[in-house]
Structures are given as C-alpha cells and as structure tokens.
Design goal:
- Helices cover about 25% and strands about 40% of the residues.
- Strands 1-3-4-5-2 form a 5-stranded antiparallel β-sheet.
- The longest helix is centred in the first third of the chain and has 18 residues.
- It is elongated, with a radius of gyration of 16 Å.
- The two termini are about 20 Å apart.
Length: about 130
Amino acid sequence: MDIRVYYEDTDLAGIVYYANYLKYIERARTEYVRELGVDQGQLKAEQGIVFAVRRVEADYLLPARFDDLLCVETRPLKLTGARILLEQVVKRGGTVLFQAEVTLVALTDTGAPARIPAELRQSMTIG
C-alpha cells in the first residue's frame, strides 16, 4: 500500500512522527484483509468477530520525511486458531525505514477469544 507523507505527519524537523508509522501499518493491515476478500464490518455483524492488536514489536531504522512516497508491505508469518503474526515493513524505494511484527487476535464482541474464520485462514499464504 502506498502512502504519501504529508506535513501533518511530521514534526518540526520535517521527519515523520514515530506514532504515525503505527497508523500507516494499521491502514495497510485493513487493506490487506480487504484484499483477501474479508469485509470486517460484515464479519462483525454476521459472526460477532473482530480483530485487535495484541502486540507490536517495532524498529525505527531511518526517518521518512515530508513528501516522501512510502510503501507498506504486509506479510503473514504465522497463523494459529485465534492469532495472526504479521511482518510489516515501510519502505521508501527499496530502503527499509521501519519494520514491525504485529500479533493480531480474533475476539468476540464481549472480548473473549474467537477462532479465525476458515475462509480467512484459507486465503492467507504463510511465509
């Protein structure tokens, strides 16, 4: 997913504020799931299942700056009954600026663990 860095994304030095990388990867995760054919609103309405971030391990390697065109890549690493481990990388050209491993969990509306729907499990290619 491509993202342009706007002035509002940066600090006084024109460097992307660290928390905005988390926003970038959140958007990319949403688009990744959509590309797999999953409508998260429909999943919640019909099956009562939502996804939540359980853990993020992030490395800030190089700064992105105002007007950069960034690419966020999302790749599944591991899938269990109720968890998805994703690798997400933010690049400028071929240069990695930020990388993270994100653990998502499937939950019911009440916050109890839920199994990841079979259709989503089948559409994810690990590795």
